[in-house]
């Protein structure tokens, strides 16, 4: 295995933290200060939205992104992703990764070998995994942790390092020259941002890191996940701040719904959502968000990336698989016809489905940046029109939220941040929307379709039933943590913050 924490690498991430951690702290504090304010497009940045500008042209390795496969940097899953036929592998050190120190370092080791094409793995059963010679390996786009998370195993001047700077810094330091030599580059997905000022910080980190290693300015490319409601009002500004390094924006689902509940936690029934599984991307406020994203990206020469197809095909249940694949196909068809340049899948068996849908729309073109969508006009009221969402809150929805939330947290505490639950590949976003929806229903006294009122006692009753049906390590901790983040009066911003205190 390569040595990751070399003195030179540690010096590099120490420098990044000394230079940028204070600004990170200020921006995290600013999030809380803005909570409760009315959201709208910023008048002070109207000149940016009105001006003529474009992001930097995409490098060859990122011009065709019609299928991207996501997953953690665990060794076998990394090889399967690289071999999947997808154009891009989102190598996830964030929501699909429990930040055990072992996972943090082994993930960097696996990325080091993946970049060099030397990654191999032999399972305990003796099965050998290696990169295929007949398939072009997916281009690696690494997702570091969000700004809010620290890394307590790296001490900088007596305080924990910023997790995002550790993830980014180690990957960039060890791999940038090898990536460039192989015709690729240091490409990143940036999660959980809430403002263009947070994008400006990332841009300054990129500029600083490139100068420190004598890498040409603009070599880095970043795609931003628009997975918070405040960021949806600042898409153009976020691209503008990153314009020398920007590659595109991504539209997600669970994190966006989680952010909606978190942002409007005290806003009353107008922002109460029905069962999470009934809130699709065709809900009016979600439709406004995705259409604005496509229009914004293509106006500025950036790629618009669609959301996750999390279904895991089950070869032992062909009927369930066939029905699910039809839903995946319909969802990807909507994205492709709306103008998205590509989309995400969580399993290699979904790559051909997504590929075919985008092939039918793109043909031989690598993308559809020319589809400008000038007819799209989205207002602030449309982005916030939650009350028009069809569906209802049900007791089955309460049961599902508790069941999936507990199962995921149990998996996370065990070291697996990408959990297969009920034929779906789930990450931390699923647990976040599950627990936040229950918090919202309890605090608004939501009445279920069967007439029951959602109370803390009802949730605890369901939690006891779920706990009785499960077994395994960390179950007690998972149930206790879920109860805390779903029912405490104080809404914790991210469940991974208290969860981090329970792992090594």
Automatic annotation (TrEMBL):
EC primary class: transferase
Q: Which GO terms describe its cellular component?
A: cytoplasm
Keywords recorded for this protein, A-Z:
Acyltransferase, Glyoxylate bypass, Transferase, Tricarboxylic acid cycle
Q: Which residues form the Malate synthase TIM barrel domain?
A: 139-385
Active site (record annotation): 143 (proton acceptor), 427 (proton donor)
Under Enzyme Commission nomenclature, its number is: 2.3.3.9
Q: Where is the Malate synthase N-terminal domain?
A: 3-47
The record lists the catalysed reaction(s) as:
glyoxylate + acetyl-CoA + H2O = (S)-malate + CoA + H(+)
Q: Would you tell me the protein name for this molecule?
A: Malate synthase
